[in-house]
Amino acid sequence: MRRILRLLLLAVLLTPVAFTQAGAQLYQTPGPSSPASKEQVPLYTPQTDELIGRVSIPDARSAVLIQPEGREWRAFRSHTLKLVVGGLALGMVVVLALFYLYRGKIRISAGWSGRQVLRFNGLDRFAHWTTAVSFLTMALTGVVLTFGRTLLIPLIGHPAFTSLAETSKSIHNFVSVPFIVGLLLIVALWARDNIPNRADWAWLKCMGGLMSKSGHHPDAGRFNAGQKGVFWTVVLGGAAMAVTGYWLMVPFTGVGIGGMQILHVIHGLLAALLIAAIIGHIYIGTVGMEGAFDAMGSGEVDENWAIEHHRSWYEEQRRKGYVEDRQPAE
Ligand code: HEM
């Protein structure tokens, strides 16, 4: 018994020594050529050249230890992009608030006529709202992915953010399909009426009469120059976002890591631009202009609204017999 106790005592006494030995193996004491600080470790310091090792697995890309441009991309992803998206969106909100203070709601100068003119049929509105709802969903989920680490983790914590980010990513990817369907539809339905013409120049020269409080609006066809700008921004910007987005969904297809970084930068900058443009568009389609929302709500606009904002289009509708003649004044 005594012998067993002595052995146990010895084991207890030797345990710290054994751990120290193991520790010495895990945390080796630095040799003469070991780096003395983090800055001397190539992986932790900015490099101008790629650092490529050797791997025996088939995927040779995993041999790249350092790709210097990756640091620039990471700085873009974690700082610049947030500034551009946040700056443009908030900048647009400030500009619209100032514009509202200056101009107020753009009224129908002649007042409501009570007579309706069909502006967008069911298919037009289906195309618009498919594009709109899917764009807004992708914008929101994209913003969660871009700003989530900074803004949401402190609020909801890591586990909840992980689920939210994963769900956002899936929604972002899947909703791209209705977005493209919407884009193709609006191109098919509206591209012809969005081809720039001479009237657009006159519209642009007086900024569509937006700054004039007299209620004068320059003549326009079905779409004015501002709306044509929104249309082509959405169509071309949206198409470029779709191409870059799908390309990023199939990593390393036709491009290397550098190409993927460039695709992501283009995708992010276009998103910032489109989000700001759409904030302006939503403003003018809701609180900014009396009678505008009806065009995409019921599809019909007030006749006086049509005359004031799209006279040429209104005249054309009349010529085609789509607008009933006005009752003679009593
Ligand atoms: C709540 C959100 C939105 C509202 C209230 C809204 C409202 C409107 C209205 C009223 C029009 C018809 C203007 C007219 O009579 O000519 C319109 C047109 C249009 N909308 Fe929207 N919209 C919204 C979101 C979006 C989004 C997210 C997109 C695309 C990403 C979009 C793209 C367009 C385009 C391309 C047009 C035709 C060009 C134009 O009129 O500017 N809309 N929208």
Could you walk me through the main structural features you see in this protein, from its secondary elements to its overall organization?
It contains ten helices and four strands. The chain has helices at residues 2-26, 69-103, 122-151, 153-174, 176-190, 198-205, 225-249, 257-285, 303-309, 311-319, and strands spanning 51-52, 64-66, 116-118, 300-302. The strands form two sheets. It has a two-stranded antiparallel sheet with strand order 1-2. The chain has a two-stranded antiparallel sheet with strand order 3-4. Helix 3 (122-151) runs antiparallel to helix 4 (153-174) and helix 3 runs antiparallel to helix 5 (176-190). The N and C termini lie far apart (124 Å).
Write out the distinct hetero groups bound to the structure: protoporphyrin IX containing FE
**Oligomeric nature of the chains:** single chain
- What's the CATH class, please? Mainly Alpha
Mean pLDDT: 90
The tally of domains stands at: 1
Number of helices: 10
Protein traits:
two-stranded antiparallel sheet; binds protoporphyrin IX containing FE; single chain; mainly alpha; Fumarate Reductase Cytochrome B subunit; 330 residues
List the helices and strands and how they pair.
Blueprint: H1 2-26, E1 51-52, E2 64-66, H2 69-103, E3 116-118, H3 122-151, H4 153-174, H5 176-190, H6 198-205, H7 225-249, H8 257-285, E4 300-302, H9 303-309, H10 311-319
Antiparallel strand pairs: 1-2, 3-4
Bound molecules: protoporphyrin IX containing FE.
Protoporphyrin IX containing FE binds at residues 119, 128, 131-132, 135-136, 186, 223, 227, 230-231, 234, 278, 281-282, 285-286, 292-293, 295-296.
